[in-house]
């Protein structure tokens, strides 16, 4: 049975995602598509615009056969660690190939990944500029870098995923407003949603109706919703407690302690925290780890949880011999172990968006 | 220079407090009155209805010559530990006598305190029933017990305060509604304030106009205001983290972890937590320590801070030789040491009531 994986966030699921899944099916004899997706808090250090169940359902309606959740302690991570989680989970599912969008699919990702192995420490905390410096190629772009990270972990984790870059179409990854109607960036779509709600006509052409259906009547969530909790937590913690949190580095615990006092909104806080040293997403990942109280000692090998699947997904799952390393039904023991921080993240997310939350696997 | 202390919360300052201070002046040759007062979180495990600066000003306008704050880690304590803090601070100020309200001022407090010394462990966590059992006297009431606690620590801390019980007048300490117009209980007054605001005509006869002036246009604060923060904190903490908090005992960390999930308001939470074993105030003290994240290892000998004083208070302060053990001006070092948890408590209190907060000593 052919299989392929995509590592994604679907925040929300748009035409670009649908295109990627369709291409994946074509490249893999119409095999089973395993979507490896972030839960309620994302790689950019942000809460998802709608909860993971809704996003899983969007994906299942539009090409994915099984959606598995990246544990939150692995999703709120730099691109390199995020890629590690994706490749790790792909291996648990014994997936044959990994399909990903790329600005330059003709790059030799595996070869490029080999080049960075001896600079791993620098690469761990790399920035786009560093990557370009390293590869001496000004063409290397955001999704290419993710691809190189996948290749890196494919090597390191001794997995044998076939890498299948797919040419990205349409909008730039980081477009902030809707430009290309059909292939708008997720960022542009989120901005439109937060600003004008689901009734915005601009969304009709840039979001599939299956996605719009899930979004309609949902509470749309963004960082400012969590600002009061974040402020309370920072005020009520010692510097030593903050220093023990995941992602916190180089005295950031002192910086946030002093800056939060004069910040009365999330925007103000970000204005105060921004420096040339840290990107917005680096800061946001630190803030998310503080909000969720994830310690730096957290285990990064928890069993991932299946959020939903269709008949084909179920059939595939029954054939692999790794199902004891994957959470299908979830027990109290799992809530206290592998699912501990993901459960906490869900409960905190639900303090803002308490409705429409489902906790049972989606079977379609 | 004659001096006397009163240990109080002034939540808010009412006619009963004024009467006590007047009696104290009469008994102490019109000497200086040092009010030893809780800050923003109180012995009953509750936030104060208005902040400590306003309450200090009420007291300074109505008989107190100097108001000193009990550090928060000592104010949110059982009656026994609260009494310890009061006696400790009275000694720092080299006060001669301690004036306190009592239902039965003819009791021999010092003798009764001597009786409990060998049962100290039980006494630490005593309840009213236990005290009555111990003393074999059904007359012993709330304020009497506080008096016995003062006497106990007067003995233990080798201090030589002269105890001056003053017959309580008017309302029962625990009256929930205003009955006796002039001497209403603080509980009844708070309930009236929260329910009907400062314009309630019932308050005109039960609150001095100096107190009403401070309360008018103030935000009135109560536990439900902090419920979202409390819920967030409990959800985002491990059981092990909760177990390290001040006042937490006998598995309460597990109980609150499981009960908070199904509680959507402070009232619901209290309904779920109440047992025959714990009084409401015992539970509230645990919840306050969780909210303020005060560890069980906290030092209970911090320097107390002066909140305000008049000319007489300043004169008295200049004559005692202990001023290095008292915070008058407060430095950054103090914020990080002696005043650490009180500052945190203030900042958390200000998340609910951000206005009208002053951070400089009141000089009248």
Subunit arrangement of the protein = homodimer
How large is the count of helical segments of chain A?
Answer: 19
The backbone outline of chain A, from C-alpha atoms, is: globular
> Largest beta sheet of chain A: what is the strand line-up?
5-4-1-2-3-6-7
Percent range for helical residues of chain A? Answer: 40-55%
Stretches of chain A where pLDDT falls below 50 for ≥5 residues?
Answer: none
State mean pLDDT of chain A (0 to 100 scale).
90
The description of the largest β-sheet of chain A is: 7 strands, mixed
Proportion of beta-strand residues of chain A: 5-15%
Describe the SSE topology.
The structure is a homodimer of 364-residue chains.
Chain A: E1 3-8, H1 15-27, E2 32-38, H2 52-61, E3 66-70, H3 72-75, H4 79-92, E4 97-102, H5 109-115, H6 120-124, H7 128-135, H8 142-156, E5 162-167, H9 186-196, H10 202-206, H11 209-215, H12 227-235, H13 239-243, H14 252-260, H15 266-273, H16 280-292, E6 305-309, H17 311-319, H18 332-336, H19 340-352, E7 362-363
Parallel strand pairs in A: 1-2, 1-4, 2-3, 4-5, 6-7
Antiparallel strand pairs in A: 3-6
Walk me through this protein's architecture.
Two copies of one chain form a homodimer. With 364 residues, chain A is α/β, with parallel strands linked by helices. Chain A has a domain at 224-292. Chain A contains 19 helices and seven strands. Chains A and B meet through helix 12 and helix 19 of A and helix 12 and helix 19 of B.
